[in-house]
Specification:
alpha+beta, two-stranded antiparallel sheet, 18 helices
């Protein structure tokens, strides 16, 4: 089973009831984004996911992208799918009307992209990166640059890329060597970039590359990097396309997964030099690129959720159909699917509850971005910005690690059939593997959380989040409802583990700066588990209220209570173990000499 059904009921619950879509639509600029409009957008985006993108997922995996005669060709059907997105104006959903966008909230765009990433992750990398490139130009480009590029990038007629990595400069961007030489009103760019997603393709008539490079007099290190717009095809003053720029794809990577997405080695300036235009001020390129990188980090975290949802749907369908043995305790006549075996049920519940937690984290972060940009109160904007900064490494790091685990569990539910490519379960596992690596590995996200988000302000920001989690959990623990009481008590009981880790990080950093780095990933995992528990506890409280109102006609809300109960029994206890890993196990990480490893 390789089909995909958009989980619209889950998405709408998270968007409307858990996150509170109404509080977003009340913000200046979003008044027309009614719940009814959001429903229509989600329904239509779901049709595209199910009917257009999902059928091409296997095609892209089997055919891959090809480099033929110096040009990249995508898999069969992909050009038509991209045309459908452009004709529908979908790429412009979160952007201002002045550039041809719909002007809708970022959180709604996140819900749309969840479905598209689940339907076809390799395909949806292209609109995801294009939206990131649009953000960078919107924020830092000149008015002339915006006028030249944004309308067609917002529409999707042109796509965008992010060119950071070089053979000698992976996550260490201080080692970037690409050059930018002034030449009148532009610059001549030369150098090679690797791992460039959709660096070349046949979906759009132009590709707008955002490229990091150094000016001749630039200082060393990251402070000497500038950002340039380098179009594949030159753009005239009236927006018309001219000559092909000195940019080419010299090869495509052969990858473990996401075969349909062309990952290019790009060469700039092999002949006269690639024409590029400076974005913003010189030597501030890395700062500007972070606008695109932070967008990409949340978007890749969303891929962790999306691929987990796709793997779960396939595993659940298989478990319902597959008959193997008689389940323990099964008393009904006739055969029973393996979904009735207790351990298969455990696997499926492990997948389901964490998917719900990840979705809540991502939609919450997306809504806080809307608040940070549009709320009239400066203090509320600052508060939202801080929460987004805390949630971004969790959303990217924890959710991709969990997504990879869930894809693996999907294979396990299939048994031996999961190891066979024809079932499709293996593709999800292969596709998921990259999510913990690109746009910053899990360790990079963890070090960002520990050093920039916890230690930099001496734990003040994370302290406020933990206090909020504790307060909400203790309120639930004080209720009369047995399920809410147990859920609240469990979440409140996990908060001290996080608090002790935060205190230990501050103490350890003073002793040896290597210790927080060695403890960073366990810290990230602990925080992800705790925040996920917090989200499910909130969902359980909402569900209990809806049940009491008589609104649970299909058992949907009752299932929310079960998901939270399963989470506190099977997932949340790992927080205490991770605390011990940090507090008692970190010193051993660096104790062996390199030659003894």
């Amino acid at each position: 089973m390789t089909s995909y059904l958009p989980p619209l009921q889950e998405i709408k619950f998270t968007l409307e009831e858990l996150v509170g879509f109404a509080r977003i639509t009340s913000l200046p600029g979003f008044e027309e984004a009614t719940s009814e409009l959001a429903d229509s957008v989600l329904e239509e985006a779901g049709h595209i996911a199910e009917g257009v993108l999902a059928p091409l997922n296997r095609v892209g995996d089997a055919q891959g992208a090809r480099l033929e005669g110096g040009a990249v060709r995508t898999a069969e059907g992909w050009v038509g799918a991209w045309t459908a997105l452009v004709e529908g104006g979908w790429n412009g959903l979160p952007f201002e009307a002045e550039w041809g966008g719909m002007g809708l909230p970022n959180v709604l765009n996140t819900a749309v992209h969840e479905m598209w990433q689940a339907a076809n992750m390799a395909f949806t990398l292209c609109p995801m990166l294009t939206q990131g490139a649009v953000n960078a130009i919107r924020l830092y480009g000149s008015e002339a640059m915006k006028a030249a590029y944004l309308p067609r990038m917002v529409s999707g007629e042109w796509t965008g890329t992010m060119n950071l990595t070089e053979p000698q400069a992976g996550s260490d961007l201080s080692a970037v060597r690409s050059k930018a030489v002034p030449a009148g009103d532009h610059y001549l760019i030369s150098g090679q970039k690797i791992f460039i997603t959709y660096g070349d393709h046949d979906l759009a008539e132009n590709i707008v590359h955002l490229v990091l490079a150094r000016l001749p007099d630039a200082p060393a290190g990251v402070k000497g990097i500038s950002l340039f717009v380098v179009p594949k095809v030159m753009v005239g003053p009236d927006g018309s396309l001219g000559a092909v720029n000195d940019v080419k794809c010299v090869s495509l990577e052969h990858k473990l997964g996401i075969h349909g997405s062309p990952t290019a080695v790009m060469s700039f300036g092999d002949h006269s030099g690639a024409v590029g235009y400076l974005v913003g001020e010189a030597n501030r390129g890395l700062e500007y690129m972070f606008a695109m990188m932070n967008h990409a980090r949340l978007a890749v975290g969303l891929q962790g959720l999306a691929i987990a949802e796709r793997a779960y749907q396939q595993a659940l369908s298989y478990a319902r159909d597959r008959v193997q043995g008689r389940p323990v305790g099964w008393t009904a006549a006739g055969p029973a699917g393996i979904v009735h075996h207790p351990d298969v049920r455990r696997l499926l519940m492990t997948m389901k509850c964490q998917i719900e937690a990840m979705r809540a984290i991502h939609y919450t972060a997306a809504a806080e971005i809307d608040i940070a940009h549009a709320h009239p109160d400066a203090a509320r904007r600052a508060e939202a910005t801080q929460l987004v900064e805390l949630l971004t490494p969790i959303a990217k790091g924890w959710c991709t690690e969990v997504g990879q685990t869930i894809a693996s569990l999907g294979v396990q539910v299939h048994g031996g059939m999961g190891y066979i490519e024809e079932t499709g379960a293996a593709q999800h596992l292969r596709d998921a593997r990259i999510t913990t690596i690109y746009e910053g590995t899990t360790a990079i996200q963890a070090n960002d959380l520990v050093n920039r988000k916890i230690l930099r302000d001496k734990g003040a920001g994370i302290g406020r989040l933990l206090a909020e989690i504790r307060g909400q959990a203790e309120a639930l623990a004080a209720t009369a409802d047995p399920s809410l009481k147990a859920i609240g008590a469990a979440v409140a009981g996990a908060v001290p583990s996080a608090e002790r880790v935060v205190a230990w990080l501050a103490e350890a950093a003073a002793r040896d700066p290597r210790l927080p780095a060695a403890a960073a990933v366990p810290t990230l995992e602990l925080m992800g588990i705790l925040v996920g528990g917090h989200m499910l506890a909130r969902a359980a409280a909402i569900a209990r209220a809806r049940i009491d109102q008589g609104a649970d006609h299909d058992g949907f809300y009752a299932a929310k209570l079960v998901s939270a109960r399963f989470y506190i029994g099977h997932i949340l206890p790992h927080a205490a173990a991770l605390e011990q890993t940090v507090l008692t196990g970190t010193d051993a990480v660096m104790d062996l000499e390199e030659c003894q490893l």
